[in-house]
Amino acid sequence: MTEKIRIHLADDHQVLLDGLSRLIHTVKHYEVVGTSLDGNNIYEEVLDNQSSILVLDISMPQKDGIAVLKEFQQKGFPCRVIVLSSYDDLKIIKEVMNLGASGYLTKKCAGENILEAIETVNEGEEYFCKDVRSKIFDTFSKNNPKLNAFEPQKHELLTTRELEIVTLISLEYSGKEISEQLFISTNTVETHRKNIMKKLKTKNTIGLVKYAIKNNLIKDN
């Protein structure tokens, strides 16, 4: 028997909570075990109902989603957190991911992507909905399509070359395009890619995007 994924929903609109609850309960091994209309007691509530995942709105009365995440970070995360927001602003995305959120979902794509987000985050991966991924990739393209202004900082895990490759992979460049951009062979690109994935302990491009966010390879403007 599949163990149920226990989910707590936090949003200040009861209609949205009801709609998400109905959708989530269409999956047999998903269970909504609690809801919150404000941010005041969310930490205690998810501890009490032993939630696996919290879906958390940013704009909450009493205590907003950022404050809730800061409380989680201070006290220790009792569950994984998917942020639900009306905004796709990169400053907010960067802040919540740096505070420890595992996913970011805009409200306009919540109905389409919430089930996928829960499954992905429950498996230990990070999740960005399509709108957020597009915003991130667009920002890469506008600010630095050819790496002309690329000024990598020193990072503990990756070399300068690996940082360049992370950026290009996140831009969805192919191995051939990366080799042409950096004047290296496709075999060298593949070797770097495998080493990067191993160092960052990630299996997909989303993990690379999160690394780019945390290390300020993505600009806010």
TrEMBL record:
Gene3D superfamilies: 3.40.50.2300. Pfam families: GerE, Response_reg. It comes from the Bacteria. The modification 4-aspartylphosphate is found at D57. GO terms for molecular function: DNA binding. Residues 151-216 form the HTH luxR-type domain. InterPro entries: CheY-like_superfamily (IPR011006), NreC/VraR/RcsB-like_REC (IPR058245), Sig_transdc_resp-reg_C-effctor (IPR016032), Sig_transdc_resp-reg_receiver (IPR001789), Tscrpt_reg_LuxR_C (IPR000792), WalR-like (IPR039420). Residues 6-122 form the Response regulatory domain. SUPFAM superfamilies: C-terminal effector domain of the bipartite response regulators, CheY-like. The keyword Zinc does not apply. Keywords: DNA-binding, Phosphoprotein. GO terms for biological process: phosphorelay signal transduction system; regulation of DNA-templated transcription. This is Response regulator transcription factor. It comes from Flavobacterium agrisoli. The lineage of its organism: Bacteria, Pseudomonadati, Bacteroidota, Flavobacteriia, Flavobacteriales.
